[in-house]
Specification:
Low-confidence stretches: 3-18
Strand content: 35-45%
Distance between the termini: 69 Å
Shape: globular
Structural class: alpha+beta
Radius of gyration: 19 Å
Order of helices and strands: HHEEEHEEHEEEEEEEEEH
Largest sheet: 6 strands, antiparallel
Number of strands: 14
Number of domains: 1
Amino acid sequence: MKYIMISFFLIFFNYIQAQSSELENVEKYLTEDWKESFENFNIKDFIKVDSIAEFQNVEKQNFKKLEKFLSIYNPIITYNNNQEKFIDIYSYQLNLEKKDGKYFSTKNSGQAIYLCDIKAKYWQRIFYGEYSHVINDVIWIDENNFILIGIEKDENGKNSPIIYLGNTKNKNFEILINTNKKCVQTNPTYKSKKLNAINIEN
């Protein structure tokens, strides 16, 4: 029995060590302004949920419209390093028009997120967030892996941080949720630097 307990402890300890190392690696990519928008933010308070979320792979977009799309949204989409893939978290929500160099928005409720692989001719919706789940920004880790950072509202309407680890090869997300109920967003109007860089007239 003693050896069983020791083996169990070693397995559990190694699991905790591996998860801690993974969280520290994720934190290296998180934007400081996003972290600072929360009170009591600590990467060690995150845990990975057991289930994997598959990409939705719906709403196939027309590549013939890509050039026109980029003429409007290129400043606020996020490319991987080789510029062959991009993630769009804003177009559905903002529904922008560009006239005389100025942006105008007719906002939609909800948030659709699209992945475009230009080389593979893949351009589809991979995620849809309701009012209670909002993605604030995208960070590419490498050519195939990226991070979505955002918020989820709790039962009291407060915003807590949530992190999605996306993999374009496996077409799925791993999800990291925050376990500290005192970690809440103190700046609910937070916008990414990319979105702040353009001026929307209305």
